[in-house]
Amino acid sequence: SKEGILYLSMALLNPGDEVLIPNPGYPAYASVANLLNAKIIEYSLTEENHWFPDFEALEKLDLSRCKLMWVNYPHMPTGKAAQPELFQRLVQFAKSKKILLCNDNPYSLVLNPSRPLSLLEFDSQYEVSVELNSLSKSFNMAGWRVGMILGAKDLVEAVLRVKSNVDSGMFLAVQKAAIEALKAGSEWHVERNAVYLERRKIIFKIFDALNFHYEEDQVGLFVWAKAPSELTSLTEFLDRLLEEAHVFLTPGMIFGSNGDRFARASLCAPHERLSLALERVEGFCK
Q1: Quick one: average pLDDT of 114-142?
Q2: Which residues share a beta bridge with 20?
Q3: How many CB atoms neighbour CB 67 within 10 A?
Q4: N or C, which terminus of the chain has less Cβ within 10 Å?
Q5: Positive or negative, the Cα torsion across 141, 145, 146, 151?
């Protein structure tokens, strides 16, 4: 879906147009907006508001030049799951402001105990909604560049006009592999999520050793954890953890200022490496 972020933005935005971008959120939303000389309007996601948008604050903004609002549920980096009530309210808000709403949805099948939700379920005529998804996360096809955009016909055609000027299609073998992946039953996801679940248990232990707080019901490929209040400089602490224990945790501040007290760990490393990281962290904490 990363290419989709670029192509959709190129199809929609002119210099000076405004874009609503979550803080914290995936850095590519802001990077692409800057590339196109669009104006970024950040909307705040906070722990106190369960990492959902503050609609009262959004209603107070002048959004007369805003064309696009990025949302991303299940959310990266916080792991917050999608909720029907949230999507309903987002669609209502987008209709009232005449803004296109794009849900970047690559984590819908990763450690998600609920039925995966699509934003398009709540906007059946695709009036203000479009959605991106990817086989990178759900089928372990990262690097194969297989993704999708779903929405109104004229919008998808506009995106395809941009893409057709960038490349001339995908290697046929990759397309056939993607078809076979999509034909697979739910057993693949059940087995793969069982692996991620075991990895997540180790990451929970890593954060326990560091005295970081986390929510256990996070969705997706990462764990988002809050540093203890007595830790005055999270960046310095994470640098020291890397230098002394050779364990890297991503500083939350790279996802926006609302992440400055948080760190993110990935479930992509194998069990053995995560176990080694746990040993090193426990040694570091002694």
Answers
A1: 93
A2: 41, 69
A3: 17
A4: C
A5: positive
